[in-house]
């Protein structure tokens, strides 16, 4: 009943849901609230979620495709190559940045309402996933303009997206727990993301990397997820069994570590937020 008084959105019936259903209801309410807050008083609204990846793709295609001559024929269509990589990496970046601060931002609510704490980082990741859904419109527009066909291999893309979201949930659980005790994690993560961006072949071809970096990319989760997405959308190929195992493996390992750290320390959050 306390949840009803503090959120103003949960009905008496919903307050008596089993915990799993109640958590899902709260997740939906929080995602909906974030969506409304993000686009409130915005003239173009959700159109920005489509324009942003398009504009980024145009700028990067002009810079790296022409001036730096990274428009390698082996990449296939460079515009599609760019937007597929950028949007997938942006999903991870947005999800982890938001998820990392979710417990700190929810401090006032956590002090008043008894609620499963993992709901907050998970909700931020799901909200990033919703925003990524709009970027799919931008991807489709680029593919139409560039005359890149969509084949049956695109049906495999949900596997990459689901495992990527699980991977982001794991990272967000870990980062949200660490940031409660060490605020420096918030600043350090921005540095890590910048380095991770340049260490992942988003705008340059994999083959220009030295051999030791090509080997290291096998341990770069974002390279694996982005390569999978490019394979099924741009190159119309079915990724290998090893690629499927890697996508699932990174997701489960991240989730396991994130949940373990989060669960071990969540009872102490209230003392530090």
Secondary-structure element series: HHHHHHHHHHHH
Structure annotation, total helices: 12
Mean pLDDT: 85
**CA-based gyration radius:** 20 Å
Which band does the percent of strand residues land in?
under 5%
Tell me the overall shape.
globular
Characterize the largest beta sheet: strand count, sense, and whether it forms a barrel. none
The level of helicity is over 70%
Distance between the termini: 24 Å
Helix/strand-derived category reads mainly alpha
Number of strands: 0
Detail the poorly predicted runs: 1-15
Topology (SSEs and partners):
Layout: H1 2-7, H2 12-15, H3 19-39, H4 47-67, H5 78-105, H6 107-110, H7 119-145, H8 157-181, H9 184-199, H10 211-216, H11 221-233, H12 241-265
Describe this structure in words.
This protein is mainly α and 273 residues long. The protein has helices at residues 2-7, 12-15, 19-39, 47-67, 78-105, 107-110, 119-145, 157-181, 184-199, 211-216, 221-233, 241-265. It is built from 12 helices and no strands. The relative contact order is 0.13. The model is unreliable at 1-15 (pLDDT under 50).
